[in-house]
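Recap from last week: sequence in, structure out.
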Amino acid sequence: MTKRAMAGLVLALGLITSGASAQEYLTVEPMQPEEDPALTVVEVTADIGVIGRTTTGIGEPLTDYGYDREPGLGTGLELRLLFGDNRYLRTGIALHGVYQSGAYFGAGGRAFRMGLAEASFAARTLLPCMSNQERQFYASAWLGVSAGRMAAGTGRGEMGPDANERRIAAVALDHSVAGFVLGASIDVHFSAFTLGLRADLRQLYGVDTVAERTMAPSAMLRLGFKFDRAAGY
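Predicted structure tokens:
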């Protein structure tokens, strides 16, 4: 076999081999993206912090005993249910209960014992620049309705010459309230646990009472646990 024939045979074999490799490469199926899981979230938290209360319409002589203004310690309990297939933004509902009784849970007297139930539309977003596999930071906001009962007491401090007026007020100023709540929180999640800070602003209107309107802002610490089908970052 001449050198020219040998060279032609080698070239032909090379073309056949490269063509087979190309055909094999072209028949490889592309990878399919993984489907996102259903990102349903359940959060249960307990709250403790400070609740401010300013009530209008009370009038003299009861304004010195906390009926018009009485910030104090408060507690809360919340259940959040979030839904959606977006890993970074989910929406749902938040059910929240709040309790306050005077400045120090009734110690030293109280003007009002306040219990509220709230239902809100809530949204939560992941903060990816602050999060990793071990911990995730979230920002949440909500808007909803707030309603409950305000049971009057005899006010703060010792009973004096106006004790009779204070006893009457403890009965006459009992009333129901209804209004709206707007709030936000920043939370960090570690495994199944959640820790955060929340702030709420409430505008409440009295029902069949001289206590026309109550503003009740609050700042509270949140501590609880969560179930997240998309756990991890």
